[in-house]
């Protein structure tokens, strides 16, 4: 049984590594990343290819996942009616604010983008990538979620992610734990987070956590745009509207909330 479990874990780790890769990956690179023998990685890749979950580029001999994973996820979200329920709320907030609205969800001690709506007209849109890593310490979404966790758990996640090479390029990105803890406590007290030129220069974002039934936080919703269009005088009103949207999503969230693993 332990052998089967080990192979399953290795296969899942391999799939996760390939999903994070920006380009098709080679056997050697994947083996080094996962700390597995090349022969074992090659066997797992061959099985994924045989079942249609991965494919090999005949020119480079490198591997990538097929669309089966994306289609499976899309089908699951469709059957759960997540998009049907959340998208109108995102669209309404984008129209009202005239800025980019994004929905993130908690996945394996990280955040991933789940949806968005654009409120700015063409030519004025702030349109960042929706596929990149979300730096938890430098984004409003990240701080909104982390503020709902016990502090020891939030610190562990931050240290696991690292505060250096996370993709955050803003001049105000915090790099020390004490400063982040102070920001998380402020976020917890007022119920919303702000990232002012932290993830990237010239951009401000405000986010609120989404906690269905007042339980475990499953993600966050945010509004983001250029600092010139979202000056400090608008932050409080914008935060109030973001919190309302988060509460509406929480009230209508169609999927079971995860079981809390917090300790007393």
UniProtKB/TrEMBL annotation:
Residues 68-255 form the IclR-ED domain. SMART domains: HTH_ICLR. One of its GO terms (molecular function) is DNA binding. It comes from the Bacteria. Residues 5-67 form the HTH iclR-type domain. The keyword DNA repair does not apply. One of its GO terms (biological process) is negative regulation of DNA-templated transcription. Keywords: DNA-binding, Transcription, Transcription regulation. Gene3D superfamilies: 3.30.450.40, Winged helix-like DNA-binding domain superfamily/Winged helix DNA-binding domain. This is IclR family transcriptional regulator.
